[in-house]
Specification:
single chain; 253 residues; alpha+beta; Deoxyribonuclease I, Chain A; six-stranded mixed beta sheet; 7 helices; 24% helix; globular
């Protein structure tokens, strides 16, 4: 079973660049999207032409902003949106699908912003998400994927020294949030399989030819309950797949 996660930075924009062909090429059993930047009916308009898949979306109250979606060959047992915390449930940032053996949660973590004005809100989101995931884990193992908007270690971004405690995505508070996930038994699958792999990133700034020069950040993840790790065969970053400022990340079960 191949699972993929991709921040599209606008599903309608990537649709114009051949999204359905790209999905066919990758041929996932499940693909999760973040930052659809579309309402549910607009997501449906794009995905209605995708044969052989069921799809579900969670859009923000604010139009053209945030949003998540899950596209699955197998119909999940059930699908439900949000965390159940009103302040964090206005932006369509969380969508969960339940399968026989696991929960799959796709997440678009709030960006702390250039001026760090949203750092507190983001820390609260991290804490609420962890509570939510641990609650699900009481029933069955959890896979959580998406744009978590943090590079965890120096190895996860091209310029750690220039960005540490200066830039959103590599603030100590954000790193602590990721530490908390891991300390609670949610394992970074890519690092589990590739502990020392360098120059593997999932997001690049649109400025200054960052992607061509591979000046990137690894901020998109698949985290897994420790008990589920034996079921996971591999984890990868599909750096050659274009269409967004992010590239997809994947795991195989």
């Amino acid at each position: 079973m191949k699972l993929i996660s991709w921040n599209l930075n606008g599903i309608r924009a990537v649709a114009k660049k051949g999204l359905l062909d790209k999905i066919a090429e990758m041929n996932p059993d499940v693909i999760c999207f973040q930052e659809t930047k579309a309402q549910d009916d607009q997501v449906a308009e794009v995905l209605n032409e995708l044969n052989g898949y069921h799809f579900y979306s969670n859009s923000a109250v604010k139009k053209g902003y945030s949003g998540t979606a899950i596209v699955s060959k197998t119909e999940p047992l059930k699908v439900f949106p949000d965390l159940g915390v009103e302040i964090h449930d206005q932006e369509g940032r969380v969508l969960t699908a339940e399968y026989d053996d696991f929960y799959l949660v796709t997440v678009y973590t709030p960006n702390s912003k250039h001026d760090l004005s949203r750092l507190d809100n983001r820390q609260e989101f991290d804490a609420e998400l962890l509570k939510f995931l641990k609650n699900l884990e009481k029933t069955k193992p959890v896979l959580v994927c998406g744009d978590l908007n943090v590079a965890h270690k120096e190895i996860d971004l091209a310029r750690p020294k220039e960005n540490y405690n200066k830039s959103a995505g590599f603030m100590q508070e954000e790193i602590d949030g990721m530490n908390n996930y891991q300390n609670a038994g949610l394992i970074d699958t890519f690092r589990h399989f590739h502990p020392d792999k360098t120059d593997m990133y999932s997001w690049w700034s649109l400025r200054g030819g960052a992607r061509e020069r591979n000046v990137g950040w690894r901020i998109d993840y698949f985290l897994a309950s420790e008990s589920f790790l034996p079921k996971i065969k591999n984890a990868d970053i599909l750096m050659d797949m274009h269409g967004s400022d992010h590239c997809p990340v994947s795991i195989e079960l």
